[in-house]
Write a structure and sequence with these properties.
Length: 229
């Protein structure tokens, strides 16, 4: 029996796609075996490790695109930069040469610049065919995010949170008096008075849940009015 793999690491597949043929391959994630074939059961991203073929679901996940502005959480520090979680099945990295506009003092440990658990606002400048994402913070307004909290929403709702020509984000900033940065990957970073952040979090969740509701802007204003000064 011929052993055959029909996909490669980083491919995007749909339900029913035949990923491999033969008994040497093992299905994982959203992939199943039918006779001698491995078949995808969902829209997803292919991950190949040895003879294991895994489908990572893309539904509800953020799919990175070049020039997207994203908020990411640093998960690891390497010799040359940082690994960053961006709510995507793709791996993201921020190289030290792309992190700052100024020259970096090589004597300073990278953890002193950005440490594990901290958040960054960055631009995606490259997405490889293998699914590796490269980030940059060399240009404004990209930066390390100090303090504040992050609110997670569906990436598909981000345009509604921003609003037409930035109308909704303008209301959120004006009525909450908080700093707000929105990542296209579904993380919103906010910083300000604790009471106002609570109200702002409720307003953002309201927008996410009622994105197609008539009069949503007025409801958001009403929710935030009690904390406006």
């Amino acid at each position: 029996m011929t052993e055959k793999i029909n996909v490669k690491h980083g491919d995007i597949v749909v339900p029913g796609d035949i990923l491999a043929e033969g008994m040497d391959f093992l299905p994982s994630g959203n992939a199943i075996r039918e006779d001698n074939k491995i078949i995808s059961t969902s829209l997803g991203l292919i991950n190949v490790k040895g003879h294991v073929i895994k489908v990572i679901p893309l539904s509800g996940r953020y799919v990175p695109k070049q020039r997207d502005a994203v908020i990411g959480k640093v998960t690891d520090v390497s010799k040359y930069g940082w690994n960053v979680e961006i709510k995507s099945p793709f791996e993201a990295e921020l190289n030290v040469l792309d992190a700052f506009a100024r020259r970096v003092d090589k004597r300073v440990p990278l953890t002193k610049m950005i440490d594990v658990g901290e958040y960054v606002f960055a631009e995606i400048y490259d997405v490889s065919k293998q699914g590796y994402v490269k980030l940059s913070m060399k240009n404004r307004p990209y930066q390390k995010l100090s303090g504040g909290i992050t609110i997670e929403v569906s990436p598909s709702k981000i345009p509604r949170i921003i609003g037409k020509q930035g109308s909704m984000i303008k209301v959120l900033k004006e009525y909450s008096k908080c700093q707000i940065i929105v990542g296209q990957n579904g993380w919103v970073w906010v910083k300000g008075d604790a009471e106002k952040i609570v109200a702002l979090s409720k307003a953002i969740k309201l927008i996410e849940e009622k994105s197609h509701t008539h009069g949503l802007t007025d409801k958001v204003k009403e929710l935030l009015t009690e904390v406006k000064k």
